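User: We ran a pulldown and think these components assemble together. Before we commit to crystallization trials, I'd like a predicted model of the whole complex to look at. Sequences follow.
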Amino acid sequence: MNQQIQALQVEFIKNKYSNILWVTFIAFGLAPVMGGVFILIVQDPEALTKAGGLATKAQAMHFEASWTSYFGVLTQAIGVGGVLVFGFVASWIFGREYSEGTAKDMLALPTSRTKILNAKFIVYGIWCLALALSNLLTALLIGAMLQLPSIASQVVLLLLTDYLITTLLTVLVGVPIAFFAIWGKGYLAPLGFVALTLVFAQIIAATGYGSYFPWSIPGLYSGAGGAYKEMLDNYSYAVLILTCITGYLATVIYWKTADQTK
Amino acid sequence: MEIISTNALVKYFGTTPACDNMSIHVKEREIYGFLGLNGAGKTTLIRMILGMIKPDSGKIALFGQPLAPQFNQWNDIGYLVETPYAYPNLSVTENLKVYYKLRQLTNPALLEDIIEKLKLTKYKDKKAKVLSLGNQQRLGLAKALMHQPKLLILDEPINGLDPEGIVEVRELLKDLASKGATIFLSSHILAEISRIANRIGIIHEGKLVQELTTHELTDRLIKKLVVKTSYNTQAVQELLRAGYKAVLTVHDEIEITDHNAIANPEHLATLLVEKHLPPQQLYLFTEDLEMFFLRTIRTNKS
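Assistant: Here's a predicted model for the assembly, 564 residues in total across the polymer chains.
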């Protein structure tokens, strides 16, 4: 256990000065800001007429100046944008050692390779949850400033549950990216994989099979593109969890057994 | 006790042999220098010894323990493989702290000690990305030495160091060996290896082609007397008449390879003076390690 804690502390040391850390928070933070802009537009009929494209988008989404609409935007940002941003985070955490040339220094130590990987997975989870929390807090602040009408606590609970589950689904579906970072020995392979999953998630969801394609599931759950949540069944979640477990095991087995020549 | 023992190691990358039936035995307190051209298989062997690359066949034992997933003496080993990279946004101290924690060390004085020993005190709060190549090399060595390992595996440890740094590292390694450490190092700076190592292994195209102690090396280096006079042709004839194996080279120098002449060059000088052919120059040429190395691998090729 002590080894695991030390490995985790090491990951925190390695990431505390990473510029990527702030870049991800800023990039992901655009979602609540955009939601706030939508609220401003729909609250002001004059602005609605002047906002052009943004107004059209807000109307197409049936956006209203309410917490329900605002949370809908936030949850969809996690379910769709999260696949990209969380994928970026995973690519960095697992690919940086190869890009910086320090991977070889992690391989012959008393702390096992599995514990080092576990520490990275924990940091990945914490980082993604922190991104989700940061967006939530920003949204609460913006919503309060824009004086959105209050809603019943049961509704708040439902919205928060949706938000949290979408976050967890997106985090889980990002786990296999670690394998591509270690297999590809850097950032490029995992980022390419993220791009591919995003494209396929859209195409497969459009053909109606998205409920069984792991990378479409968080988006469908979030309600992006319509009320598709009902399409998801137990098999959908099983596929997603299986993808996550397979990704984790593939990463650990590859990291422990493959020839490390870089 | 054998600290490193490899038995008939074989590793192929595709059809290219990176390590072909290599058996190496490094004893306790030995400084074993490992020579080879780029791509000869030095780094592959080092990575195999460190468990980073799995051999296709053959066995490795460290401290008498087989290198297997259960191997638990990693804290007795310090290593530096190829270019030493560091986390660019972390300071020297933070970079070392990463390995301090991953090695489960519990004595914070080790950090300060190694920073001081490697002369990094001035840079301890500087980010690794602003360090010079030499100081990055020092940081790499600090990572390898911080936990006072019994076995040091160093791949090109003096790369990038200035002459002062080279001398410091040489003294440091000799000091560690005198205190009981075993050192296995590769380098392409052959003269440096000959200064540090007790035993030298020459690897070529994945094969160990020569293994010899420093004393054996001294014996095997080509030695010859090189003489120049005003009348070299006449001098050669006089030397041949006196029983020396003298040869006039294309550089218009006389080379004599007799052991007797090498052991007693003054006799040869006296002879030439008596024959009114006083030497303008007379020196003992000794083949350096570089020449020996090239001769060895060329002999092996042919």
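Residues 163-178 of chain B form the longest helix (16 residues). That may be worth checking against your pulldown data before setting up trials.

User: Thanks, that helps.
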